[in-house]
């Protein structure tokens, strides 16, 4: 008799605890241009650390949040660890998403509040990497995650 009570307690605990972040469908998000070449940054005292590389691109963001429309939530942009160099992405937005900065292997908040059916915005992104950026072609893996209360 005690066993069913225990299982009911576990079920209630599972419903009340957050299930963790949910990866969102951002398959309609794309970059302009689709491929970008990292360039050496000019050697200037005011430009930050010497010897780094950077690139600029535009990201047209479309994240499907229809399943959570009307609910409160927090959306994070995640930049997967690359395995070699640390990459820093910083951006400004058109206003729907928060401007921000993220390092590879981390995530940062880009939206908090009542969720629409889709989050759409255009980001102006600056990518920076240290000089150990060793391959001419590398894929950066950004994605979006949702947490609900």
Fold and architecture overview:
With 149 residues, the protein is mostly beta strands. It has a single domain (19-147), classed as Jelly Rolls, CATH 2.60.120. The protein is 10% helix and 43% strand. It has 1 helix and 10 strands, in the order αββββββββββ. It has one helix at residues 2-16, and strands at 22-23, 30-32, 39-40, 53-64, 72-79, 87-92, 100-103, 106-114, 118-129, 142-147. The strands form 2 sheets. Strands 2, 3, 4, 6, 7 and 9 form a 6-stranded antiparallel β-sheet that branches. Strands 1-10-5-8 form a 4-stranded antiparallel β-sheet, with no helix packed on it. The longest helix has 15 residues, at 2-16. The two termini are 33 Å apart.
Topology:
Elements: H1 2-16, E1 22-23, E2 30-32, E3 39-40, E4 53-64, E5 72-79, E6 87-92, E7 100-103, E8 106-114, E9 118-129, E10 142-147
Work out the radius of gyration: 20 Å
The number of distinct β-strands equals 10
Strand content: 35-45%
- Count of domains: 1
Shape: elongated
CATH class: Mainly Beta
How much helix, percentage-wise, in residues?
Answer: 10-25%
Q: Which topology does CATH recognise?
A: Jelly Rolls
Helix tally equals: 1
What are the secondary-structure elements, in order, as H or E? HEEEEEEEEEE
**Average pLDDT level:** 81
| Main beta sheet | 6 strands, antiparallel
Spatial gap, N to C terminus: 33 Å
Classification by helices and strands? mainly beta
Uncertain parts? 1-17
Q: Which architecture name does CATH use?
A: Sandwich
């Amino acid at each position: 008799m005690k066993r069913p009570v225990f299982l009911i307690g576990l079920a209630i605990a599972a419903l009340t605890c957050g299930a963790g972040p949910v990866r969102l469908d951002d398959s309609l998000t794309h970059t302009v241009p689709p491929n970008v070449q990292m360039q050496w940054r000019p050697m200037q005292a005011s430009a930050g650390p010497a010897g780094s590389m950077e690139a600029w691109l535009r990201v047209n963001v479309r994240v499907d949040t229809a399943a959570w429309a009307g609910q409160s939530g927090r959306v994070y942009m995640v930049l997967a660890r690359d395995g070699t160099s640390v990459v820093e992405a910083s951006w400004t937005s058109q206003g729907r998403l928060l401007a921000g900065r993220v390092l590879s292997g981390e995530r940062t908040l880009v939206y908090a509040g009542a969720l629409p059916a889709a989050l759409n915005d255009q980001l102006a992104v600056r990518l920076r990497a240290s000089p150990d950026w060793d391959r001419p072609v590398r894929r950066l893996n950004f994605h979006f995650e949702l947490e609900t209360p």
